[in-house]
Structures are given as structure tokens and as C-alpha cells.
Write a structure and sequence with these properties.
The protein is an alpha/beta fold. It contains 15 helices and nine strands. Strand 5 and strand 6 form a beta hairpin. Helix 2 crosses helix 3. The termini are far apart. The protein binds ligand FSX.
């Protein structure tokens, strides 16, 4: 797909300025935990670094991960995401279909064996020998087990691929599992239901800048994004410490200011950078909008955190 020469020129042709681009680079640099001295290096990596070939498999999921990655508030960000990688296969957005799509997949795997990044969204159904999920006449289970070991690295986008997520919720009729469980591979996990696309971009840019994937926590998550609890970064935290809790959303004042812990907020158990990065180009995030965190980026989401509106 996109072969990535002259990113800035293409963005400018679409009406997006260098200033927009540098603003995004500054946000990305801060998100990656790098000092502002790296902003120009991040910009250079985005604009000109060689693009790693990427194969993106969509398994059992709701497509929210692709939506959150590709349908951002400013359309040039999806261009950016698609431009920093050489996306050889993504069945939802690629032009070829049927046998031609399948050929693209296998041609890329053969040509780039050991050199491509595999991105997976969605869990892997394993019940009935994997027959709950098939693509091109093969089960998702067969496909991910065949392609995963040939990749240089595997990045799981979303909680489903990372830990099983919603498809693995009880009673888990398809026996859905995470990518690492079925392949035995160590995966880089970017959980969230959906995840924030800037954390994917940060992971790939870390690779472009430093030639390696970012440092991970013990659940496979990049520390730059998942190193702190939501609660520890939450602007409502002072109200938690003062014991001022919202028990119902019955006033605008309560919705805006008070701690949502007694409404079931899972911020004290959930690691993610939502409070600082936010969604929709930094516009807002669930707790800012008055909704408790539901712990969507943690292992065992959904079962562990339901019922959502009850404090644990
Ligand atoms: Fe899961 Fe993603 Fe939630 Fe949906 O691909 S993390 S159900 S937003 O789409 O996998």
C-alpha cells in the first residue's frame, strides 16, 4: 500500500500544515516518555525512516481497534499511521480481495520472513479446532500459528489479541484466547477496548528510532504507555483523597469534579495513559466525560471488572 516517500508533501497537499505535524510529533515524543530534545528526531523518523513491512491480521473482534486507529478526528493521522509502516496486508482496508488478498499475504510472508512486523487485533477462537473463525478457508488459529513464528515481532492491538478480551468473556463459547497463549510467542501488547492509536505509533517509532521495541512490563505492555495507574494520573484524584465521591450523576458539578470510585471506577486497578494522552486528538477520555473507567486494558477484562457500576 502506502510506500511513504515525502510524507510532509503529501500532508501539505491535503491541507495539513507542517505545524500540525510538529504538534503531533511533540505529543508523540511526550507520550513515549522522551525529552523535548527528541521531537525533531521523532519527526525525522516519521518523515523519512525506512518502513518496516507489516502484516495486519484481524481475528475475533468488533473492529473497534481498526476504527480507533484509522478514524481519528484529523484524517491525516490515519495517513501517518499507514505511512510509517509498509502495510502489505490488512483485509479490512486493502484494495485486493479473495485470492488476490490471500496472495498478497503469502507473498509478503515469504519475501519478508523474519523481517516483518505482525500486528494482530482480535482474539483467537480455539473451540471446535478453531472453526468458529475462518479466513480464506483456514481457521484463524491455523493462520496465526503459521504466520506468527515467521515475524520479526508480533504486536497485539487491543485487549482481545493481548489477553482474550471480550470474545473470551464467560462463558467463552468459542474458547477464545490471546495470541501469545495460542502461539507461545512473546507479544508486545497494546491493550484497550479500543486502544489509543498513539500507543501503536509510539511503539513503531521507538523501533524506527532505536532499532528495538520499547521496554515492556510483565504483561507485555510498553512501559511508556502503561507504566502508571489511571488513578495516579487522574484529575479527580484529590477528590478521592478527600473522600468526596459521586454516587449518582445527578448534577453537572458532580459529573465534572468528584471522584467516580463509588460509581465503580476501575482506575485504581488499571494501567494506561488515557488521562494524559486522551482520545480524539487530546479532546477527552471517559473519566473526563463523567464515566467510570471500566478497566478495559487489563487482563481478564471483561469478567474481572463486571458489574462495571459497582466499586470493588
Ligand atoms: Fe477487541 Fe479490537 Fe475491543 Fe473491539 O480489534 S479490544 S472488542 S474495541 O475491536 O479487538
Amino acid at each position: 500500500m502506502s510506500q511513504g516517500k515525502g510524507l510532509l508533501e503529501r500532508l501539505e497537499r491535503k491541507g495539513f500544515s507542517r505545524r500540525d505535524f510538529m504538534k503531533y510529533c511533540a505529543t508523540l515524543t511526550a507520550t513515549m516518555g522522551l525529552s523535548s530534545a527528541y521531537v525533531s528526531k521523532v519527526a525525522a523518523a516519521l518523515a523519512s525512516a525506512p518502513r518496516p513491512p507489516v502484516i495486519w491480521l484481524a481475528l475475533a473482534e468488533c473492529t473497534g481497534c481498526a476504527e480507533s486507529t484509522l478514524r481519528t478526528m484529523y484524517p491525516w493521522i490515519d495517513e501517518l499511521v499507514l505511512d510509517i509502516i509498509s502495510l502489505d496486508y490488512h483485509e479490512t482496508i486493502m484494495a485486493p480481495s479473495g485470492e488476490a488478498a490471500e496472495k498478497s499475504l503469502h507473498d509478503s510472508v515469504t519475501k519478508n520472513a523474519g523481517k516483518f512486523i505482525l500486528i494482530v487485533d482480535g482474539a483467537v477462537p480455539t473451540g471446535d479446532d478453531g472453526n468458529f473463525g475462518t479466513m480464506a478457508g483456514k481457521t484463524m488459529l491455523e493462520t496465526v500459528k503459521e504466520i506468527g513464528p515467521k515475524a520479526m515481532a508480533t504486536i497485539c492491538i487491543g485487549t482481545c489479541a493481548s489477553y482474550g478480551g471480550l470474545p473470551a468473556a464467560a462463558p467463552n463459547p468459542t474458547q477464545a484466547k490471546s495470541v501469545s497463549e495460542v502461539t507461545g510467542l512473546t507479544t508486545v501488547n497494546i491493550p484497550g477496548c479500543p486502544p489509543n492509536p498513539i500507543n501503536l505509533v509510539g511503539t513503531v517509532v521507538n523501533f524506527l528510532l532505536f532499532g528495538k521495541l520499547p521496554t515492556l512490563d510483565d504483561k507485555g505492555r510498553p512501559l511508556f504507555a502503561y507504566g502508571q495507574l489511571i488513578h495516579d494520573q487522574c484529575p479527580r484524584r484529590s477528590h478521592f483523597e478527600a473522600g468526596e465521591f459521586v454516587t449518582s450523576f445527578n448534577s453537572e458539578e458532580a459529573r465534572k469534579a468528584w471522584c467516580l470510585y463509588q460509581m465503580g471506577c476501575k482506575g485504581p486497578e488499571t494501567y494506561n495513559n488515557c488521562p494524559t494522552v486522551k482520545f480524539n486528538d487530546g479532546t477527552s477520555w471517559p473519566v473526563q466525560a463523567g464515566h467510570p473507567c471500566i478497566g478495559c486494558s487489563e487482563p481478564n477484562f471483561w469478567d474481572k471488572f463486571t458489574p462495571f457500576y459497582k466499586s470493588s
